Amino acid sequence: MGIFKNTKAEKGVVPVAILVILLPLVIAGVFLINPQNLQKVVQKFSPKISPSPTATPSPSISPSPTSSPTVKPTNSPSPKSSASPQSTPAPFTNIPSGTGYSQVSVETERGTFGISLVTIDMAGSKMITDTANEGDCNDNCATLSLADFVFRNSGFAGIHGTYFCPEGYAECVSKKDSFDFPVYNSRLGRWINGGNLFWNDRSIIYYDGSGMHFLRNANSFSSGLTAGIVNSPGLVDNWNVIAGEFPLSDKQKAKGAKGGIGIRGNMVYLVTASSVDMLDLAYIFKKLGCTSALNLDGGGSTALWFGGYKAGPGRNIPNAVIFAVK
After folding, report:
1. Which residues does residue 203 pair with via DSSP β-bridges, in sequence order?
2. pLDDT of residue 140
């Protein structure tokens, strides 16, 4: 039992052993109590964590301003040769009974011709003559389409007017779109080119309170009308063809598009035809039973309206004949 020998020595060893154990703990406690040392220890043994970078705040995004819709500038239309704005035509259901449109084949002693025909019962209608100009004009005169003439007079039918000098013709360079034929402007209540009523070899169709009238010689007209148009030649008078009794130009003698207006009792006939000469047109009106008829313009100006174009529209024109409900 050697381990129990020298009991005295064992008693001295115990305190020393306790001191050896406690001393490091005391030193460690002092060391740890020091905050700086504590911080060093923490830093040494703590895992190195890369700090999350301070997030740069997203810039405050100002909402895109609500863009005002782009407003397309209203382009002022190229000045239209017009004396007044368009108005609504008379409702097509209001046209007088007996009034209508047809395409017919007319057999005459000069041949058979296809025509566009508008018949108008004047019992419930009135004739209107209108000009694009408000006064006489010698050059760069105003023009309108036939549709514009019909619309602004609240009409239901219309036909091109007198001969005039269209743009593009060599002889019209200094008198573009002018006309010298007298036309009564129903809107203004006065003649345009009224000073030319005395000219010879011209006929007139006009409208007054008692109805439609024709004069072979326009220079015999006196007064009393609400619409009237002068042109050449007269075609039919008292059922007789008179076109050959007027001096005719080469264009009038040639076949082409032509138009005119005729009277048969209380009915008015508006006619356009292609491939006809002036005598052909006169005999067409005679065959239709017209007591009188007047030639109007033709060629590229030919236009006929009845709820839409039935011939044309052709070029813009300086004057026109329109029919509206009374």
Report:
1. 231
2. 96
Asked if 133 and 142 touch (Cβ cutoff 8 Å), the reply is yes
> Among all chains, which residue has been given the structure tokens 């005679």?
286
Q: What pLDDT score does 93 carry?
A: 62
Q: In the chain, at which residue ranges do the beta strands (DSSP E only) sit?
A: 100-108, 111-121, 125-131, 157-160, 183-185, 190-192, 203-208, 211-215, 227-231, 234-237, 240-241, 256-264, 267-276, 292-298, 304-306, 309-311, 319-325
Residue ranges of the chain whose pLDDT lies below 70: 1-93
Q: Is residue 75 exposed (0-12), middle (13-18) or buried (19+ Cβ within 10 Å)?
A: exposed
- Confirm if 173 and 136 have CB atoms less than 8 A apart: no
94: left (phi over 0), alpha (psi -120 to 50) or beta: alpha
* Residue 34 φ/ψ region, left for φ over 0, alpha for ψ in the -120 to 50 degree band, beta for the rest: beta
Q: Output the pLDDT for position 94.
A: 75
Helices (H), 120-277: 146-152, 250-253
Strand pairing category for 304-306 and 157-160: antiparallel
**What was the pLDDT predicted at 157?**
98
Please tell me whether residue 146 adopts helix, strand or coil conformation: helix
The amino acid at 296 = L
DSSP string, 29-54: HHHHHSHHHHHHHHHHHS---PPPPP
Q: How high is the mean pLDDT of the chain? A: 81
**This prediction's pTM:** 0.74
Residue-level pLDDT at 5: 38
Q: Give pairs for 104-109: CB < 8 Å, separation 24+.
A: 106/284, 106/287, 106/288, 107/287, 108/280, 108/283, 108/284, 108/286, 108/287, 109/283
Return the beta strands (E) in 162-291 as ranges: 183-185, 190-192, 203-208, 211-215, 227-231, 234-237, 240-241, 256-264, 267-276
